[in-house]
Write a structure and sequence with these properties.
With 766 residues, the protein is α/β, with parallel strands linked by helices. The chain folds into 4 domains: 2-160, GAF domain (Beta-Lactamase, 2-Layer Sandwich); 178-195 and 325-405, 3-Layer(bba) Sandwich (Glucose Oxidase, domain 1), CATH 3.50.30; 202-317, PtsI, HPr-binding domain (Enzyme I, Chain A, domain 2), CATH 1.10.274; 441-707, Phosphoenolpyruvate-binding domains (TIM Barrel, Alpha-Beta Barrel), CATH 3.20.20. Helices cover 46% and strands 16% of the residues. It has 27 helices and 22 strands. It has an 8-stranded mixed β-sheet with strand order 7-14-13-9-10-11-12-8. It has an 8-stranded parallel barrel with strand order 15-16-17-18-19-20-21-22, surrounded by 6 helices. A hairpin with a 4-residue loop joins strand 13 and strand 14. The longest helix has 26 residues, at 213-238. The structure holds phosphoenolpyruvate and magnesium ion. The site of magnesium ion (MG) has 5 residues, from helix 21.
Amino acid sequence: MLATLRGIVQEVNAAADLNEALQLIVDRVQSSMQTDVCSIYLLDSVENRYVLMATKGLNLDAVGQVSLGYSEGLVGLVGVRQEPINLEHAQNHHRYRYFPETGEERYESFLGVPIIHHKKVLGVIVVQQASNSRHFDEGEEAFLVTVSAQLAGIIAHSEATSAFVGPSLISSKEQDLVFKGVAGSPGVAIGQSMVMFPPADFDSVPERTSDDIDADLALFDGAIESVRVDISKVGERLAEQLRPEEQALFDVYIGMLDDKALAGEVQNKIKAGSCAQTALKHVIKDYASHFEMMSDAYLRERAVDIKDLGRRILSYLQERETQTLNFPERTVLVSDELTPTMLGEVPRENLVGLVSIKGSGSSHVAILARAMGIPTVMGLVDVPLSKLDRCEMVVDGYNGDILISPSAEMQAHYATVLNEDKELDEDLKEIIELPCETTDGHRIHSWVNTGLMADVVRSLDHGAEGVGLYRTEVPFMINERFPSEYEQMLYYREQLEAFAPNQVTMRTLDIGGDKALTYFPIEEENPFLGWRGIRVTLDHPEIFLVQMRAMLKASQGLNNLRIMLPMVSSVNEVEEALHLIYREYHEVRAEGYQVNMPQVGVMVEVPAAVYQVRELAERVDFLSVGSNDLTQYLLAVDRNNPRVAPLYHSFHPAVLQALYKIAQDSKGMHVQLSICGELAGDPAGALLLMAMGYDALSMNASNLLRVKAVLRGVSLEWAQDLLKEVLMLDSSYIVESTLTLALKEAGFDRFLRRSRLAEVKSSAAL
Ligand code: PEP
Ligand code: MG
């Protein structure tokens, strides 16, 4: 059964579109379960009806024609109950419905299983049998449930991205196709998507037709010739090390490139209208899955050879194609895993948005995107990249969503948002030089989070009063080895000089978790609970000490450096780090550098630190809350996993209580208390934090003026009343709606970008 299932999934994955995928499923299920009929009904979410979309066994003319109401018949019942229904004598059931148009005889046995993706019923898969002696046993039922669960994701996404949008009945209606990821860089972009493919990856090759068949044939022939030469060379190089029978393998390889075999099939597909890459993809996938399904282990292994050959040809095809890429005027660059080099390939004036299927808000590209002010969405689960190419797309970097082929209504809505954003930015210029002060004179520091030099420029433009978090891992990430002490010193000096005499809080290297250095890979089963932040640097004092020396030397003559320790979960770590910092301080001074001992602080970002605020505060000069990680660890929700993104809520009452406790416990401890997680950049979050007693808020430069504008428009007393009310609430949603309402009533509607966009989308028919 497992082999059958694997075969079905592979074939369905390779299907060109939803119709082909559905037909494959019903054909394979019908033959492997040896039933008379297998059909799939998909739920048309606009009409709220189940439409027969594919069948093996019923009249094919009924496909797209026969439909049932949401709760009609046995199909409707399976959908409503969201569980399998297995009946030996279906006609006796009061919900049984007979459709003469399907040409069906009266099938006696019925097994229906819902197709569910992310809690949503997409449809129902049904098997039927005429003979009344058939009782689908438990094993068969379990098989169909497994097929349905495995295929639900594929169906959901091919339905969502197919040109005809699922059931034919709704093909004429405009629907907004929304995919959820995580916010990488705030803002909205409307443009045309352009997928940049990782080299030689078939999964990301799109379905494209040929613009010029002769040119594609020539391109393909050239690629084949190049691969043939490559393989011959490899064969010759290895000739002395291989026995003749092993060398024959290379001849087999070259034989596969023959006109009569693989190459001939690709050429035929090109002649039939596919572009070279698409044609190659299909032929290689067909060949590979054919071999993969063979029971003989030796032949199964040949699938690997076919794929390798395919990748070699593909890389030659892509090499030639990239030289001629034309980027649309408003390009949304999409890739499986965007890299900074890819960004560099698009002219800046054409680049309006970014989408990366893999990665997170703290990926290197997201950091770069924020510095460049490009709206970005990262981490979209299960989205078939090949179908995102060259379509109209909205990137909602506030909420982490993308909309594909948006309706005119949605386009107009987002165009308004874009304009409003521009107007707001223009209006906010007025307060750049003004302090972050409430109407009753309470002053709070408004700081920025930086990483690259580009952040510095944007921060100064936005009137930042200092840096609450400089992520030193960024200069480490853009290098190909650990930067030397001198190189680090230059990076740090740039930051310190730019903000002097204001303070710059430099966090010691915070790698691990999702922040990887290519030259220092950390492979772990559970990286967020593993070797991260201070744990890594204390285990590698040679890295930590060099960093401390570079920071201290960079601060000479400026004395605006503060050092901050990430991922602290015990006082021992702080003591050990302090010991190393003091040691380096004395050594640097002994070398003749005139530096002052910088202030040292600790990030409160794991639950253990929340309960040891006093003990930590006794040892350092300041505490800074990392609410991004604190939320993740308190709620046990991976901050970068879009599957659980709806559960990641910094307004969760437990998070608010923790933040409040930190503020209370640090009172009277003679430490400055700041926050540098994303919550500080949210106007409502900033209000609550100020009311709790936080002294400084550090955020992304693009949020700085919005937060300042809101804080300048309220009194501390008003914010404290709001906090009191909010701390009594027990649900994140109620907290959010209470805050939204309060801000609206106070006249800050324009600043509620995130929640307003979310409202619009939830009211649209998705
Ligand atoms: C945080 O965890 O809130 C934080 C500011 O650090 P980072 O996002 O870099 O982990
Ligand atoms: Mg953190």
